[in-house]
UniProtKB/TrEMBL annotation:
ThuA-like domain segment(s): 7-216
SUPFAM superfamilies xref list: Class I glutamine amidotransferase-like
Protein name: ThuA domain-containing protein
Transmembrane spans: none
PANTHER family: GALACTOSE-BINDING DOMAIN-LIKE SUPERFAMILY PROTEIN, SECRETED GLYCOSYL HYDROLASE
InterPro entries: Class_I_gatase-like (IPR029062), ThuA-like (IPR029010)
Highest taxon in the source lineage: Bacteria
Pfam families linked: ThuA
Length: 221
């Protein structure tokens, strides 16, 4: 079960190349448009109070790379395990805190590479009966195509297939691009899309992420 709170926390920082503060503005607009009260933080100090984290319906890690201390990691994981949702995308959650394997276990995967850097690729919806993907269809996006190491217990909602153009030996490899999972009582949503804020101008991308974050918050059945 998820928390009944209508509050969300966005934690932004880390590698500046992913424009975390611009993405925070976009996410904030999505969540406030759905009626959530949003707190934006630009420091990991917000994770020092483990009890306060449990008052949020949703926490959005928006922090590529960086380091997460033992206590802060423990507080975040405990909040999600108790019912707070966790949602994020691209490097802000899938390439955050590379040394913290317990965080990666909670997320359900970790960035490994993006062969070809930024290029156009397809995303196939594989679970079209889920409330996050219902009514959406395959799309193409120009972004970093993430090659992920992924937990097989995830519920995969979308995949991407590597052509082999940039790395020949992975031709035809299908990698999850969007998934959900449970971590204790908490809902977890992740999408590997979202290298540049302009990608959220794509209507399917924007709707996919909006629904995913609201699902993690418990605001979407």
């Amino acid at each position: 079960m998820t928390t009944s709170s209508s509050r969300a926390l966005i934690i932004s920082g880390g590698w500046p190349g992913h424009q975390p503060h611009r993405f925070a503005e976009i996410i904030r607009g999505m969540l406030e448009g759905a009626g959530l009260q949003v707190t934006a933080a630009d420091t990991l100090d917000v994770l020092d109070d483990g009890g306060a984290l449990r008052d949020y319906a949703l926490i959005v890690p928006n922090w590529t790379m960086g380091q997460l201390s033992g206590d802060r990691s423990k507080h975040l994981r405990a909040a999600v395990e108790a019912g707070t949702g966790l949602g994020g995308f691209h490097g802000g959650m899938g390439d955050a805190f590379r040394e913290n394997t317990e965080f990666q276990f909670m997320v359900g995967g970790q960035f490994a590479a993006h062969p070809g850097d930024i290029h156009r690729y397809g995303v196939d919806l594989t679970a079209t009966d889920h409330p996050i993907t219902r009514g959406l269809s395959r799309f193409e996006i120009e972004s970093e195509q993430y090659y992920m190491h992924v937990d097989p217990s995830n519920t995969v909602l979308a995949t991407t297939t590597f052509s082999g153009e940039h790395v020949a030996w992975i031709e035809g490899t299908v990698i999850p691009a969007v998934w959900v999972r449970r971590y204790g009582q908490g809902r977890v949503f992740y999408s590997s899309i979202g290298h540049d804020p302009r990608e959220f101008e794509h209507p399917t991308v924007a709707e996919l992420h909006r629904r995913g974050l609201l699902w993690a918050a418990g605001s979407l059945a």
